[in-house]
Amino acid sequence: MDCTLPLLFAQTGSYLIGSIVFVLFAVVVAIIVVMYGGIWFQAYMSNANVSLWSLVGMSFRRVNARVIVQGKIMSMQSGIGTERQTGVTTRRLEAHYLAGGNVPNVIRAIIAAHRADINLDFDRASAIDLAGRDVLDAVQTSVYPKVIDCPDPKLSGKPTLSAIAKNGVELKVRARVTVRTNIEQLIGGATEETIIARVGEGIITSIGSAATHLNVMENPDKISTAVLNRGLDAQTAFEIVSIDIADIDVGQNIGARLQADQAEADTRVAQAKAEERRAFAAAREQEMKASVARNRATVVLAEAEVPKAMASAFREGNLQSVSPNGGAK
After folding, report:
1. In whole angstroms, how far apart are CA 316 and each of 188, 306, 311?
2. Using one digit for the tens of pLDDT, what is the confidence trace for 102-122?
């Protein structure tokens, strides 16, 4: 009796501990099922290959499991989810999410590129996204080119470009540039502002090299051809499809105005030089008058010395009188 009682207590304690452990395990399993069961079942039915323990681990890694699973489901349903094609794996999706990337946007961009037969894998798409570019917009622009204004009134505040032909006539031009995204140069390539600046420079150069403004107005397509031949889309994130001259207006005759301003300036210079010569002549006249006055004073002084010299000569006997007949006395 004394031996069976401790044994009975030991068995009861073991059952109690086992029951507690089983209950805790059941509670944990129930919580996991409640929290992740729906997401896991959705992934399982979509053949997304996301395990339940991966979903639990995402919570500890501060990853939004629903975003990852939806991205994986989209990739699998669109046919790009295999590792051999684009490398879309759960680990990579988590890494991109933790790096601050937009996982749904990247998946949509890869799907759109796959549909349009554009070579875009997950590594390139995630790099573009982390670089701050909208990768989905880039793919859409590559499929459907967009049109940008040159110049852009929002950036420059001017509706037209101003250029002057060789005959001095000003032309005001507004162009529309159709561009398509260059996926290969999207990382590190120049943006739309560079395209606008280069196209504007090319238009101004083309008009400036024209003999007259009439040549430009008769054949505006020459401007587009000349600008396209310059290869302005080099090292940019876009490829120029076409450049269309939307509007050309004749401005001022800058050459004539410059010539008039130059003539007026020459007149002012001539007037200034004439005034300088007049002032020099007036000063010279005053100098000559002063010289004449000085010479007259010298003559008066010399005439005043003549009587003194004659008196001195009489006293010394050096001066003889002259008779009327011309003989000396």
Report:
1. 117, 15, 9
2. 999 999 998 888 888 888 888
